[in-house]
């Protein structure tokens, strides 16, 4: 049998690798590859070129898609958590951040009715009233029973918010001062738990809003 040239075999190798040659051609290529190392190496390289990169690329694509999906989910979940925390923090700040309402004669008044002292607040709204009963405090060298009051607001209750709501009107919030019969003076002054018992210090920044005559 006449020897087939390697160039002819190598031209047939792509078809041979895809198994689209006739049985006679396949037998001819098989016999040639059995004794031709050059063509056999060419065939092995052709198989690697045809099959390995395709499988590798598919695997890489799957891994890339899976990795991108995980990263996308992490980004979305992180954004949701961050947004939730920001909104929760903002809500907490707006609702619970306290600020003392500054004293103004138009907003605050103390009135005595039948031996009871009432403190009036003529504002839209407020969050909390802080008040003491009669405390024995030295005032200008004289001991007197005085009461301290002050109102606080949060951002949710602030007058700045109410400016944008024209439907709101000023109210008369009235509260009775405990043991009113003993009280000689009422002061508007901010105080905290650390200053309880040191009322002379609180008195330094206090505003006298009522005095028994």
Descriptive notes:
The protein is α+β, with helices and mostly antiparallel strands. It folds into 2 domains: 6-93, Orthogonal Bundle (Arc Repressor Mutant, subunit A); 108-211, no CATH class. 45% of the residues lie in helices and 23% in strands. The protein contains 5 helices and 9 strands, in the order H-H-H-E-E-E-E-E-E-H-E-E-H-E. It has helices at 6-17, 23-35, 37-96, 159-162, 199-204; strands at residues 98-100, 108-113, 116-121, 128-131, 135-139, 142-154, 173-176, 185-188, 207-211. Strands 1, 4, 5, 6, 8 and 9 form a 6-stranded mixed β-sheet that branches. It has a 3-stranded antiparallel β-sheet with strand order 2-3-7, with no helix packed on it. A hairpin with a 2-residue loop joins strand 2 and strand 3. Helix 1 (6-17) packs across helix 2 and helix 1 (6-17) runs parallel beside helix 3. The model is unreliable at 51-55 and 159-168 (pLDDT under 50).
Structural class: alpha+beta
Helix and strand run: HHHEEEEEEHEEHE
Number of strands: 9
Broad shape = rod-shaped
Tell me the strand percentage band.
15-25%
Mean pLDDT across all residues, rounded?
81
How do you describe this structure in short?
The protein is of the alpha+beta class.
Q: Would you spell out the secondary-structure blueprint of this structure?
A:
Layout: H1 6-17, H2 23-35, H3 37-96, E1 98-100, E2 108-113, E3 116-121, E4 128-131, E5 135-139, E6 142-154, H4 159-162, E7 173-176, E8 185-188, H5 199-204, E9 207-211
Parallel strand pairs: 6-8
Antiparallel strand pairs: 1-6, 2-3, 3-7, 4-6, 5-6, 8-9
Helix pairs in contact: 1-2, 1-3, 2-3
